[in-house]
Amino acid sequence: MKMNHLTTGFKTVKKLGIAATLFVIPFSVSAQEPVNDATTPLHFLQPDYPTPYGPKSIQEIKATLDKVYTFLEKTTPAYMVNSKTKQELKSLKELDENSIFAPGSFRLTSYEWGVTYAGMLLATEATGDHKYADYTNKRLKLIADIAPFYKKQLDKNKEYPSPIHGFLIPHALDDGGAVCAAMIKAQRAGLKADLRPLIDGFMDYISNKEFRLTDGTLARNRPHPNTLWLDDMFMSIPALAQMGKLTGEVKYYDDAVKQVKQFSERMFNSQKGIYMHGWVQGMEEHPQFHWARANGWAVMTLVELLETLPKDHPGYNMVLNQLKAHIKGLVAYQDGTGFWHQLIDRNDTFLETSATAIYTYSIAKAINRGYIDKAAYAPAVLLAWNAVATKVNDKGQVEGTCVGTGMGFDPAFYYYRPINTFAAHGYGPVILAGSEIILMLKNNEFELNDSSVQLKIKK
Question: Degrees (nearest 5) of the Cα angle 325, 330, 336?
């Protein structure tokens, strides 16, 4: 019999891959509406959780993804306009120095949108709904279609106005590493667009033109000479990994593994199990600020690399062990709300959405791929998703995301960074997180026993 309300007795509910066995009592066991009064026996008192507790249904998760999708589809138009007349171009033959992407809330070629494109592709894989992948494919095809015109103009004049200038003439890994990885994923998934010239161009930048330390570690000369930014693991390694998969050339895997090893040797605090944000070669002491989103870029890098890295590659076990150590460290710092703090190990810093979403995706993916113990980590990641979902408002905006952040060497720099719904960093991670949680729920069952979530091992 289908039950819409809780009644006295034992009930087993199984819906969309989630099995929950509850001892049901005459009052609600909702995490959000506990009924506790002077007449309630102590062993029946309900926790007053600040975040909804227990697994969400697949329909609930998809509803959250749909809100984000609807907001982004509306606020990131995919066509060209004339910047002077504001009119849409009827044909790409009208491209000239006044052509721009139709104005929207976010940039179609930013590294944040590389994450969003990958998230939309995964959402289609998880839900079967093609609108998500269509979002990515439409925008990447537009970029590919306009690229030949701008490449021709920039070959003649490097100052020619171009909406994809940074991708065609990059000056930093941020200019295209994440988008390049998404382009390879889209091509591998069957997108019919001429992406390969763009992919080859940016991969040449990563492999041959980006500044490196003498041992080959990808680096920057800001804010100080010979500086490692943890962010750059994600801005380079997933693209290298995807290129290895696309071409079969081992050199891309070798470089990716080398980067993981050399970043981790300098920046991973093995006692805490988390990374520092920046490392400067010329400093005798290396200030350790464990910024949450940078750690997100790192852990996501590790799962993305393992997704394509052949198991017989000599660096596979090193990468896998590094992922296990990092996830163990991260989960130890999870707040009771399900979120993580802006500075992971300083719980007086604010709770931050984008990092929490990235961890949710990465840990769920590690569970789904068998990299970590799912019984140990699944409850934490389900709680993390529930926390993230509370930050998607009715408009589909993601709240609680820290704006773009450089590298600092004092706590105030990180403590007081602004948060904003137009911080682009939150959107792709939320889509990735929800999609991977859906895949986890499809392949596992969970029980709510004595108000705690536990994996129900399938026989």
Answer: 145
21 contact partners, CB below 8 Å, separation of at least 6: 10, 11, 12, 447, 448, 449
The CA distance from 323 to 299, in Å, is: 7
242-256 average pLDDT score = 98
DSSP 222-238: SSSSSEEETHHHHTTHH
- What Å distances lie between residue 279 and 86, 194, 236, 358, CA to CA? 45, 38, 17, 22
384 phi, psi to nearest 5 deg: -60, -45
**CA–CA separation, 152 and 72 (whole Å):** 31
> What would the 3-class secondary structure string for 393-437 be?
CCCCCECCCECCCCCCCCHHHHHCCCECCCCHHHHHHHHHHHHHH
What is the biggest distance separating any 2 CA atoms in the chain, rounded to whole angstroms? 82
The whole-angstrom separation of Cα 141 and Cα 130 is: 16
> Quick one: DSSP state of residue 93?
G
Beta strands in 276-425 (DSSP E): 278-280, 340-341, 351-352
Q: Mind listing the pLDDT tens digit for each residue in 23-82?
A: 333 333 344 455 678 888 887 888 889 999 989 999 999 999 999 999 999 999 999 999
**Cα-based distances in Å from 72 to 139, 240, 330:** 12, 28, 30
* Residues facing 352 on adjacent strands: 340
Cα angle, residue 213 at apex, residues 208 and 215 outer, rounded to 5°: 90
Q: Please count the other Cβ atoms lying within 10 Å of the Cβ belonging to residue 190.
A: 8
Under 8 Å between Cβ of 355 and 296: yes
**In Å, how far are 66, 69, 133, 194 from 129, measured between CA atoms?**
10, 12, 8, 24
